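task queued by scheduler; priority normal; single chain, no ligands, no partner chains; default sampling; output format set to structure tokens
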Amino acid sequence: MIKILQIPFFLFAALIAGCAGYQKGSLPNSETASLYLEPIQNEAYISGVAPLFQSELRRQILSSRLLKLVPTPEEADMVAYIRLLDYEEQPIGYLKSDTGQPISARISVSAQLTLTETDIDETVLIEDMPLTANSAVYSSPSTAFPNPVDQSKPAMVSDLARRVVLELELQRP
């Protein structure tokens, strides 16, 4: 009987000892960093996406508890430069008519992020980091915009903005 009780007690003691130094994980730095966002440069040649992306990026930065937008670079801890670089659409499905209008596609948009710290020598934290958002989009021929890309721009820029904000949060000084 004693040996039966010793085994569970031994396992219990080993478990307790193994977890004794455990600490709940968190970000190493939880201080807010001020950020100045340069106007988005659009080299992706997809109309209307730069202002949509800038608006979504600002919205997501404002909802971040680790970043604070400031109106001038002089007030900022960091300055972000973002260029939309490439856009690609690969149609998956088409309308039954002979118009060739795609109703579903795989789309991707890529950007480059450069982030500098506004200290005395303007330290470069990130230089030309590539970021890409990919998604499949579908539309109904009965909608106002039969082109799935037109309907998917908000989702596409939201995904890319999320990726940019994550990098900005991770690189805070």
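post-processing summary
- Residues 74 and 80 are 13 Å apart (CA to CA).
- The two ends are 60 Å apart (CA to CA).
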